[in-house]
Amino acid sequence: MIVSVSRRTDIPAFYSEWFFYRLREGFVHGINPFNRKQVSEISLRPDDVDCFVFWTKNPAPMLERLDLLAGYNYYFQFTLTPYGRDAEPGLPDTRELVEVFHRLSAAVGRDRVVWRYDPVFLSAKYTLDFHAAAFRQLAERLHEYTDLCVISFVDLYAKTARNTRPLALLPMEEPEMRQLAAMFSSIAAEYGLTLESCSEKIDLSGYGIQHGQCIDRRRLEKILGGRIDIGRDANQRQECGCVQSVDIGQYNTCRHLCAYCYANFNARMVEACAAMHNPRSTILSGELRGDEKITKCRAEHLQIVKDSAVENTGQLSLF
After folding, report:
1. Is residue 319 part of a domain?
2. Which domain holds residue 284?
3. Could you tell me what percent of the chain has a pLDDT over 90?
4. 68-95 mean pLDDT
5. Angle, nearest 10°, between helix axes 128-142 and 94-108?
6. β-pair type (227-228, 304-305)
7. In this structure, is residue 314 part of a structural domain?
């Protein structure tokens, strides 16, 4: 079983105490984001978890407790972008985060830290020239500490369109995407970085940018030491290439409050949900009310095949 920690919020930055407590207890309750009464009980025991995939913009609170992950496989998706407080009001200074990136990579290995430069957007302030300079500066600082950079272009859902209105974003059409892709590709090549896209319809292979997988079969096979048979995650949008996982986060709990974030509705809701957080609760925000239907998630270890034969893996039953 692959456990995503988490697409829905930044657990390493804000809820690492809760995560490590749940690790000690051996399970967590995941709430269906569309029906709070549907709850999945997810085992976090080493016997059931093949790999954790951590998503974060600031894993600093976890760095001194990585020893608590002994016995588990894991890697990090570390988003590091150059925007200002107008877009990312809750983040530390970029220079500080670069140092955190260095420390994390030194602790876990460069093959277990993926640099995410996303989402990419344009405005009168954040221009093509801005991205050219910023991406080069970050690539120069990070290329010795990771082997991969993932890019994606901003998606303006209704709530993100509303929340990014003060940024006055410019249209992001195919010509702009291709200009950016060519620029990023050229810079990445200078620093020996592999470049992939995340959940993009556009084909950028002409620039040496392949469609990537954030929960990546190839990286998992490298970490686990053999081939695995695991399907695409049908719960993600069509353009997403990620393999199956179960997510343990909750929406509207990330206190970075990035204007472009799809996982938050607005700052007021985040404040309310964060205020309900209890590090000893089985769920991330609030408490179970007693009227939920709790279903144990069937979890089986992936079968790791070290030769040409590939066996079927166990399937996940989430709700």
Report:
1. no
2. 2-305
3. 88
4. 97
5. 40
6. antiparallel
7. no
- What is the count of structural domains for the chain? 1
For 136, phi then psi, to 5°, come to -65, -45
Q: Encode the chain in three state secondary structure.
A: CEEEECCCCCHHHHCHHHHHHHHHHCEEEEEECCEEEEEEEEECCCCCCCEEEEEECCCHHHHHHHHHHCCCCEEEEEECCCCCCCCCCCCCCHHHHHHHHHHHHHHHCHHHEEEEEEEECCCCCCCHHHHHHHHHHHHHHHHHHCCEEEEEECCCCHHHHHHCHHHCCCCCCHHHHHHHHHHHHHHHHHCCCEEEECCCCCCCHHHCCEECCCCCHHHHHHHHCCEECCCECCCCCCCCCCECCEECCCCCCCCCCCCCCCCCCCHHHHHHHHHCCCCCCCCCCCCCCCCCEEEECCCCCCCEECCCCCCCCCCCCCC
Give residue-wise pLDDT tens across range 104-159.
999 999 999 999 999 999 999 999 999 999 999 999 999 999 999 999 999 988 88
Answer whether residue 105 is part of any domain. yes
Per-residue pLDDT band for 310 (boundaries 50, 70, 90) equals very low
160 alpha-carbon distance from chain centroid: 18
The reported pLDDT for the residue numbered 288 is: 97
Say yes or no to pLDDT of 317 above 50.
no
**What 3-state DSSP class applies to 251?**
coil
Provide the pLDDT for residue 307: 53
Sign of CA dihedral 53, 56, 62, 63: positive
